[in-house]
Design a protein that fits this description.
Helix 1 packs across helix 13, helix 3 packs parallel to helix 4 and helix 10 packs across helix 12. The strands form two sheets. The chain has a six-stranded parallel β-sheet with strand order 2-1-3-4-5-6, with helices on both faces. By secondary structure, the chain is α/β, with parallel strands linked by helices. The chain starts with 5 loop residues before the first strand and ends with a helix. The longest helix is centred in the first third of the chain and has 16 residues. It folds into two domains: about 170 residues, Rossmann fold; about 160 residues, Rossmann fold, CATH 3.40.50.
Length: about 350
């Protein structure tokens, strides 16, 4: 019996993000075996006869960005992988690190853009790749529909958080990191005088961010700090009328897709892939460089028809099928020659249609 084709995922799954688990689960259902990959020399030599593709997601997991020598060693291992016959693929979730670029980051980024086939989640992300954009393939970010439990309704979720059933509620979910714009969000929210609106900020502080200090003095702000278990995500998201993703810098947003997957519209900056949401009816966008724009967007979000926003969000999420996304990955891997490998200009028509129609 002929062995199934095999790819190595780096990583196969992450405890804090279901993206890889959902993607590779769909890939395996199409008959391709996925193993946990590594970038060490011994692993590359041992696996070369049984693995065809190395698929990277967050390359900084494989070297120390603070040490140029570590980055050089990683680039040499990438070159070795190519010499050994591996095909390299890089899904560019972020082109640059959110908390400080380094010479090591820049070296690895340049090497991957030359040695690997880049996957971008939208046309804006593809254009951001510079010269490598011509070789990049646009494959949309899939939804999280069905991954997280979703049994707690809005009224019960609000009761769990101590929020009034009839309050207007905004929520911001995800790791609390400096680039997420929590400070800007709290300043903008403070400019809204309505005593009955509420803002929930939920997630684990990382990289020196401390929402407890930032939120002092506004009793309308509720903090749910720490890692949120998967079965509690529904409580935070379903308690909200609208979710806020106030990033200072972003290419692709898993938090936005999480909101859509629960049928919640978002308030977001017109940056990266978020800018493509303008015509979907699922997002209220603002210019992050315009003074007062976030506060104005919050006011629009609080006054908006949350049901209409949520309906558009739900339609968008349901259009992003992991099976279709997995098939596009097989084409990138070179394991599905009958599938059209669509370039960034023509790629992901179903998802783009959903983006246009909402």
């Amino acid at each position: 019996m002929r062995a199934r084709p095999r790819i190595a995922a780096l990583p196969r799954r992450l405890p804090s993000n279901p993206y890889c688990a959902l993607l590779y689960g769909a890939v395996e259902r199409l008959g391709v075996e996925v193993v946990e990959g590594a970038s060490g020399v011994r692993w590359l030599l041992r696996a070369r006869r049984r693995v065809a593709v190395l698929h990277f997601h967050w390359p900084e997991r494989h070297f120390d960005p603070r040490r140029l020598a570590s980055a050089v060693a990683f680039v040499l291992r990438l070159l070795l992988a190519r010499l050994l016959g591996y095909r390299l693929v890089w899904t560019v979730h972020n082109l640059r690190p959110h908390e400080g670029d380094t010479p090591g980051h820049r070296l690895v980024r340049a090497a991957l853009l030359r040695l690997a086939t880049p996957i971008a989640h939208c046309e804006a992300a593809r254009r951001a790749l510079g010269r490598a954009a011509a070789r990049a393939v646009v494959v949309p970010h899939g939804s999280y529909v069905g991954w997280y439990p979703n049994r707690v309704g809005a009224r019960a979720a609000r009761a769990r958080l101590g929020l009034a059933a009839d309050a207007r509620v905004l929520a911001c979910f995800g790791q609390i990191r400096p680039y997420k714009g929590i400070e800007e969000l709290l300043r903008a929210f403070a400019a809204i005088p309505d005593p009955d609106v509420r803002l929930v900020i939920a997630g684990e502080p990382v990289g020196g961010a401390d929402a407890r200090v930032l939120a002092v003095g506004d009793p309308r702000v509720q903090l749910v700090l720490g890692r949120i278990p998967d079965d509690e995500v529904q409580v935070v998201v379903n308690a909200a009328d609208v979710m806020v993703v106030p990033y200072r810098d972003v290419l692709t947003s898993g938090a936005a897709m999480l909101a859509f997957s629960f049928g919640r519209g978002i308030i977001a900056p017109r940056l990266g892939c978020l800018a493509d949401l303008a015509e979907t009816g699922a997002a209220i966008l603002y210019d992050p460089d315009e003074p007062g724009a976030l506060a104005a967007a919050l006011r629009r979000g609080l006054a908006a028809d949350a049901t209409a926003l949520g309906g558009a969000a739900r339609r968008l999420a349901r259009a992003l099928s992991w099976e279709a996304i997995a098939r596009r990955h097989l084409a990138v891997y070179g394991l599905a020659p009958t599938l059209a490998l669509v370039s960034g200009r023509d790629g992901a028509p179903a998802a783009r249609s959903a983006l246009r129609k909402g």
